[in-house]
Amino acid sequence: MLRMRDLSGGYGPRPVISRISLDIAEGETVALLGANTAGKTTLIRAIVGTLPSVSGVIAFEGRDIVQLPAHRRVALGIACVPEGRHVFGQMSVRDNLMMGAYHRRTEDLGSDLADCFALFPRVRERQAQAAGTLSGGEQQMVAICRALMAGPRLLVLDEPSHGLAPLMVAEVHGAIRKVNARGIGVLLVEQNVSSALKVVDRGYVLESGAIALSGTSRDLQDNDTVRRTYLGI
Amino acid sequence: MIAVLQALADGLMIGGVYGVIAVGLSLVFGVLGIVNFAQAEFMMLGMYVAWFAWRYLGLDPLVGAALSFVAVFCLGALVQRLLIQRIMKAPPVAQIFLTVGLLIVLENSALLLFGPEFRTVKTAYQTRALMIGPIFVSVSYLSAFVAAVIVSGGLWLVLTRTWIGRAIRATAQNPMAATLFGVDTRWIYAVAFGLGTGLSALGGGIVLSYSSVSPTSGSQYVVLMFTVVVLGGLGSVMGALVGGVIVGMIQSLSTLVMPIQLQNLALFTIFIALLAFRPQGLLGSPSR
Ligand SMILES: Nc1ncnc2c1ncn2[C@@H]1O[C@H](COP(=O)(O)OP(=O)(O)O)[C@@H](O)[C@H]1O
Ligand SMILES: [Mg+2]
Asked: By C-alpha distance, which of A9, A10, A38, A27 is closest to A204?
């Protein structure tokens, strides 16, 4: 579904990520792991189109999207839960969800909303509230639902569990599994390596802007470097 | 007592119109983050459009105001694409230079094209008045107020009930996230600037129904516009509409205790006190 070859890019002349190759198959769940400032968010921004400078290939369902402006990628089926959530704070939760479906511009969203509420019943209760007044965990749920409202084929999540209480982390990761069960591919960025590896099929480890390691989640869990560096075992 | 009621009624009606004039300024700031010092000159252009529509098409200025909106919406959107877009990320000083420059260009263009004279319209209802209980209601003010209420309601519907309205609010709050969900923010900026300047122009058309227009009409309204917007909270649409009514009432009540020439004194005193003690405005939050 997503094929990345020799991708380099950054915010100025100096590349932050270099020569990255990465694949996500139809309906697969893939983790992108790595320490702080490894370049995970930068790679996500290259996929969604908000990175100032990129070179190389990103093909989504066979189509090269590197030159496609960010606002036209969501219609292809790429939806993003950005790092830091970025909900529309002064808009109601419901309007936040509606904005997720902006590229479709249809009022007929009943079944999409029902799917979101099934995933996070809390979001249904909060519908009329301004998103900015919710707790961090609830905002994360709104951010995830908003992305699902886009009707994606690939859901990209950048540190959705960051700053959340353990129970909330479990809820978010459980939701990711349920989303994947609907056939939606997932790219999950996490610093929380051990719990992320329980959610995904495969993973890539990013170090200083390059892929250092990749494999199935079992391989990575058993890998000595991963155990020492990220799992602290 | 009746004098106070009378002043409140006049203030409410005039204030509703102030709200429409000022809401454009607030919208432009809220969405683009630009303080448009030329906003009142777009209003002045709207007044001329309504005047010409009255003079040559025989349209009532309240109807001509719709033409003012359309014409200035297009002009505003064009100005945003050609000029404002270039300074969206520039330092505030560059933004001030550009919009103040625009002010001077628009004012002098009007002088060149339309001449310095004051122009007024004549309508059948201009000198009529209704007695509602003990209060005297000028038909001009009343119809201007009704027009302002319709426009405010329409704006509210557009912003809350349509896709373009949601996209405008989303872009104001978080342009990056709006982009992620398919909003072409450059287009939204042009639309929002057109809408903002168009609304001030529409308000100008309404004002013309009981007032006059000249190339310097903008400078007559600029401080009023900023007072309303700061009172309501810069960037807040509801705030501007409510702020307009408050300012209208203050102006009108002050004439009970002060000579009419000093009616702006009360306004400025309150404006300065607000800036000193509650710079985010009455309804505005500290950040947008
Ligand atoms: N907006 C930006 N402008 C310039 N440099 C940035 C920007 N965002 C991140 N960087 C730099 O890119 C590198 C990778 O950052 P990032 O992709 O955010 O890492 P991660 O998400 O893995 O923590 C860091 O060195 C950071 O300083
Ligand atoms: Mg990051």
From this structure: A38
Please list every residue in chain A whose beta carbon sits closer than 8 Å to the beta carbon of residue B175. none
B119 interfacial to chain A (CB closer than 8 Å): no
Higher-confidence position of B45 and B287: B45
Q: What is the distance in angstroms between the Cα of B194 and the nearest Cα belonging to chain A?
A: 21
Contact A92, B169 (CB under 8 A): no
pTM metric for this prediction = 0.94
**C-alpha span between B11 and A102 (Å, rounded):** 41
Read off the pLDDT of each residue in A200-228 and give the average, rounded to a whole number: 92
Handedness of CA B185, B190, B196, B198 (dihedral sign): negative
What pLDDT score does B284 carry?
Answer: 59
Give me the residues near ligand 2 (ion), CB cutoff below 5 Å.
Answer: A 40-41, 83
A122 and A168 in a single domain? The answer is no
Distance from CA of B169 to the nearest CA of A (A): 8
Q: Does B103 touch chain A (CB under 8 A)?
A: no
In angstroms, the CA A126 to CA A147 distance is 17
B198 is a domain residue: yes
Residue of A7, A11, A48, A159 best suited for mutating to test ligand 1, as the one with most atoms within 8 Å of CB: A11
Q: Note whether B163 contacts A: Cβ–Cβ < 8 A.
A: yes
Pocket residues: Cβ below 6 A from ligand 1: A 11, 16, 34, 36-42
pLDDT at B288: 40
Mean pLDDT of B240-247: 92
* Domain region containing B181: 2-277
Percent of chain A whose pLDDT exceeds 90: 90
What CATH number does the domain containing B27 carry? 1.10.3470
Task: Kindly provide the ipTM of the predicted complex, given to two decimals.
Answer: 0.95
> Each residue of B248-261: pLDDT tens digit?
999 899 888 888 78
